[in-house]
Structures are given as structure tokens and as C-alpha cells.
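ok trying again, last paste got cut off:
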Amino acid sequence: MREFRFASLVLMTVVAVFSAGTAAAAPQGGTCTPPGAWAAAADFPDVIVRSWGVFFPPNGKFYALGGRDSDTAGSDLQTVSEYDPALDAWTQKTAAFADNQVNNMVGGVLDFAGTPYIVVLGGSAAGATTTTAEVRQYDPVADVMTILADDPWPGAADGATLPGGAAVYDNKLYVFGGFQVNVDMTDAIYQFDPSAAAGSRWTLMTTTLPLAHGYIPTATSGDLIYLLGGSTFDTSSGTPAVLDTADSYVYDPVADAITTFTPIPRATGETRAVTQPDGSIWVLGGGRVAPNPSIKSKC
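nice, full thing came through this time. structure:
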């Protein structure tokens, strides 16, 4: 299985940049120059793959949660690492995950009654075919990790599904699709609401993905959530394979409606989509099918 290895939270090279102001907007052809420029930063202290990286606005720092340093069973990293851009330095935090099912998680920053936390969910161990449904809440200020035991992710009730993509809108986390390990992708959309009572925070949305996908680069821009690429599971050749796609969708969380969007210029998956201050979304590298990962920026 192909992995992405990175040294800092600027994870991979941009493959696509486009304006995501409205559902009707479409990428323009040709090469563009993104605002700003790439710059070297302090290397992550170890090799790390399949980690969940997130920016925490209250303190202006980045966090890498979980992941592993190889494909070997037992190589899982049950730790949280903090990157301080002001100091250009990494620090390993004291808080740790209670188990090693910490690869391929998804999550976001959510406000719980006035206190912001990083929330991550799902995951598996290196080399494993089982998954967890746990939802973990990390407090970067107190450096405390808590399992929200009353609200496991329903999408992994089978013990063998990884979450596909995730984005936050209106202080709710939306989880799209998933990978039923070595079986198929899924098409369900779930909403996690931190303001709901414990034990009732998950809602299965009525709308589903037009096609089942996993490993979906997903980001919110304005009032919409964009799903750009992602993976399908192909069994037609007799040898099951995870394949990149250019399938792109836009989801309206208020209407609970999803529509097809102009395809991303190059098929990709297994990476992140990141919203910029101007509302554009960058899809960073990605994919396992040649010629990915891409090294070309398009808009």
C-alpha cells in the first residue's frame, strides 16, 4: 500500500487550486501562482504517515495526532505532536491515545459549550483489518486526551470501516463515506453535533454520496463543503485495488443536499484539502495511482 511521508504539516505539493465561492463556480484552466510561497520549516522528529494534522486557531499552533512511522505492525504513534510556527519547533505532548488504532482518523476543531477542542474519530492499527469507532477529544491547552465513550462513530459499528473525509460547518463535524477494509467503500454522511447531549451527538443524514468513496480530500468554503477526488474500491480485475478518482461533489449542509461538481483536474485521494483565507481550496498532492503524486499546481 502506498503511503505519504512528510516532514512537516505542509504535507504535500499542491495539485489543484480553485475558487470555491459557490456551487456553480468551476476551476479555470491553466497554471496559476498561488498567493505566498513554499518555505522550509522544521522537520517532524520522525517519519510519520496516516496522521491527522490540524490547525488550532485559539493558540495558532498545528497538531499531528496519531499515525505511524512504517507499514509494519506495531509502528503506530500513540502521541500528539505540536508545531509552533513562531518558534519553528516541534514538541511532543504528554497526552497520548489509549490504544494504537490511530491511523486514517478524521476530525476537526469543535466548540463544546465555549471550550474549543480537537476531535478525531475512527482509525486502525498498522497492518490491521479491524477499526475503531472511538471519538477522541483532545484539549491542546490542558494537553488532555478524552474518549467520548457515549458517542462512538456509527459508521464503524461493523468494526472494519475507516472514515472517508471530514469537514466542519457551523460547529458541526460532517463525515463522508469511508473504506470498509478490503471489502468496499461506503456512501453514508454523518453529522456530529457537540452541542447535543452526550449519547445523541450523531445524526445519519438522509442524503448519501452519489458514489461510495473513501479517503476523500474535503474542506468547507463559505456555506458549502467540497469533496475533491477520493478513492473507490475496484474488484473487477479479480485483484481488489483502491483507485484514485477525479469525482468531485459539493454538499450543502443546511439543505442536506449533494450535487456533482466540476471534476478535479487530476485524479487523487488519500490527502487533505485546505481552505485558504480567500475562500479558495488547495488540494495537496495525493493519490496512489501513477503519475500521482502530482507536482503541478492548477487553478
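cool. The first strand starts at residue 14 and ends at 18. The radius of gyration is 18 Å.
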